[in-house]
Description:
The longest helix has 17 residues, at 163-179. The protein contains 9 helices and 7 strands; from the N terminus they run H-H-E-H-E-H-E-H-E-E-E-H-E-H-H-H. The protein has 2 domains: 1-29 and 187-222, no CATH class; 30-185, 3-Layer(aba) Sandwich (Alpha/beta knot), CATH 3.40.1280. Helix 1 crosses helix 8 (189-203) and helix 3 runs parallel beside helix 7. Strand 2, helix 4 and strand 3 (85-89) form a beta-alpha-beta unit. The two termini are 20 Å apart. The chain has helices at 4-11, 16-26, 43-55, 74-77, 92-101, 140-145, 163-179, 189-203, 207-221; strands spanning 33-38, 60-64, 85-89, 105-109, 116-117, 127-131, 148-151. It has a 7-stranded parallel beta sheet with strand order 3-2-1-6-4-7-5, with helices on both faces. By secondary structure, the protein is an alpha/beta fold.
Amino acid sequence: MLDLDLLEHLQSFLTERRKETFERVLSERTRHFTVVTEDVYQLHNTSAVMRSCDVFGIQDLSIVEEVNTKRIDKEIAMGAQKWVNLNRYSSIVTCIDDLKTQGYQIVATSPYNQSVALHDFDVTKKSAFFFGKERDGLSPTVLQKADVCLKIPMYGFTESLNISVSAAIVLQHVITKLKQSDVKWGLTPEQKNELRMIWAKNTIRSVEDIIGRYYLKNKNEV
């Protein structure tokens, strides 16, 4: 259970401007959509996808690493690793099953398999967007288990886009349509408090020392 008294204490170390920024961003955050990358090889691509998640208000990014295990490139993520929740999976099946239990439909981004064009995508459904390897795309497992395949219309000779570019295009489109809809896409009060706590801890210097002193003081006052 979240310690609201601790949260209030930590927020006292934040500037008013920082707290106002937190509230502004929280008001635009959503878990109606989430993003998954599958065995992306180039580190900068995953980092750039995380940055796009933050920019477009997607709170959760899942990374499946059955083959390629990487760390987030902080320079490319531009601080997004502080604000976006990162979930790591070693199995694509486990990832898919987990997301389905959370009520997400599985959306495979692919130009094939009778894909739905981006502008025709139904944003009212809670959706997890899967993006695959740079060269090979998504695995057969994702394509077979997907509830829908999604494609970005292309009009040139090239038939594919860089994964980070694809993610940015998809997210910008679906988020814009979502916020024009009647869907209640915002976070719950409990989810907002959880993020306030995480973000405060990721912002405040020597936060573990501050928390330790807080609990020691409260223990001595009992």
